[in-house]
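User: Good morning. I'm curious how zinc ion would be positioned relative to this chain. Could you predict the structure with it bound?
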Amino acid sequence: MLFKKKYSLSFASAAIVYREWDNRNLSIIGKIDLHVHSCCSDGTDRPAELVKLARQAGLTALALTDHDTINGLAEFIAASAGLENFTAVPGVEISSRYGARELHILGLFINYTSPRLLAFLDQLRQERLERARTMAVRLASLGYPLDVETLFSGPNGDAVGRPHFATMLVENYQFTTVAEVFDTLLKRGAPAYVARRLPDPLKVIQEIHACGGMAIWAHPIYRESRERSWARRVLRHLVPAGLDGVEAYYTSFAPEQTRILLQLAEEFQLAVTGGSDYHGSRHPEIALGCGYGNLAVDAGLLAKLVERQQTRYISA
Ligand SMILES: [Zn+2]
Ligand SMILES: [Zn+2]
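Assistant: Good morning! Here's the predicted structure, ligand included:
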């Protein structure tokens, strides 16, 4: 496929790559998953393993979007090199703060060798580590000392967060589930909870664009009750800053939620994406490509995304 080949050939300059894409050859069919985590953040599978699983699941495209890190992307892209009818999309999921809420922004088609992106992610990493250390001190003072240095030096040392602490607490103390640990100690307002300092979503959009990526608002109405009006308010803030799309298909969405997001995407002229938020055995109930079983993201969305991306970079 021309799209894939040219992308992987001239990765160093995303803007040039997009100019080279040829729409006439872009006929992507099948099912895709544009939101997946590997063990480089809080998933459990290696990036190369994800490519294998995606192929077994019959997916024709997969985006690796680890939290605040691109450490898995080189392996991910290498594992998909030369595969027929399969597109590996380099991505990242960056947490941001909007008022009292966390907004997650996916960066898709990012140039993961961009020094500016690396510097930005490194700054986020430092803040994440600082928070993890404070959390460890607090847990120790509550009677749950942990050998956190093994976490920091482990495979996801760059992305240590509450899920890793929760798993360690289940292994070392009398908790039966990760959910129980969150309820007792780690959820917002619980004794070991430490708030994260997160970047502004507008800054995140800017950084994603600076490395040639598309900025997508992930699971926009996740666990929100008055969803439509809230999402519209957020979009009025993010769209003028260049937000490219919304994730309208998502594992936990009811059909009504997807419908609301498709309408909002049309209203704000945004691209639409979809993904499972697969995390491997950390959330075994969520399957790659199909979520709880009824998620289906059409590959046609990827073609539209690429088209939109191409238009932006050509006119830029
Ligand atoms: Zn998220
Ligand atoms: Zn995610």
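The chain has two domains: 2-120+199-315, 126-186. The two ends are 25 Å apart (CA to CA).
Let me know if you'd like a different ligand tried.
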